[in-house]
Amino acid sequence: MSYKPASADRDWEVVEIVRRGRGACASEWYQDELEQTLEGAIDDDVMDMLGQVRLLIAAGDPPNSERGRPTIQKVATHEFRHEKKRVRVKLMVLKGKPGHWRTYFIVPDHAACVAVCLYTVAKKTDSRDPTDVKHCTNLIERFYAGDFATRPLNVPSR
C-alpha cells in the first residue's frame, strides 16, 4: 500500500500514548514515554529531537518535502489479529539527528493525519537494537487492544 505525501496546507497532529497508573488511583492516566524520556537528556539532544517532531508535524508521513524533511525511516511492518481482522501497521522511526535519540511511531490512519509516538530511546550503538522493535510491536498490539489512550504531545516552539 502506498500513500501520497501529506497535504501542503495541513499540519499533522503528533500524540503520545499514555497508560493507566498501577497505583492506588488506577483511574489516573500518567504520561509515558517521550517527554519523560527526554527529561534526562541534555538540552541540545532534546532540541534536536523536538526539531524533528516539529518537522513531522509540518510535513507528515510520508513527508511533504515542500513543508519539511524530518528524518524518518521504516523499521518494520507488523501484522497481527485484532477483533478477528488482520491488521498491518508500519513501524517508523523519527531520528533526532545529529543526536542519538530515536522516537518510534505509527500512523494508524493516514487520512486523519495523526502520528502516534510509542517509544523514545537513546541509541547506544550504530545498529538498531532488536529489543526496541520487539517492545514497539508489543505496544502496537496493546494500543489497538485499548490498553492506552493518547494525548497531544507538548512540542514547544523554538
| Global geometry | globular
Q: Which stretches of 5+ consecutive residues score pLDDT under 50? A: 22-32
Total DSSP helices:
3
The total count of strands amounts to: 7
User: How many individual domains?
Assistant: 1
Following the backbone from N to C, one meets helices and strands in this order, namely: EEHHEEEEHE
What Rg do the Cα atoms give? 15 Å
**Main sheet characteristics:** 7 strands, mixed
The share of residues in helices is 10-25%
Tell me briefly what this model is.
With 158 residues, the protein is of the alpha+beta class.
Give an overview of the whole structure.
The chain has one domain. The chain has helices spanning 34-38, 43-59, 130-144; strands at 13-20, 29-31, 72-82, 85-96, 101-106, 114-122, 148-152. The protein is of the alpha+beta class. Mean pLDDT is 80; it is low at 22-32. The chain has 3 helices and 7 strands; from the N terminus they run ββααββββαβ. A hairpin with a 2-residue loop joins strand 3 (72-82) and strand 4.
Key descriptive features of the protein:
158 residues; alpha+beta; 7-stranded mixed β-sheet; 23% helix; globular
Give me the secondary-structure topology.
Elements: E1 13-20, E2 29-31, H1 34-38, H2 43-59, E3 72-82, E4 85-96, E5 101-106, E6 114-122, H3 130-144, E7 148-152
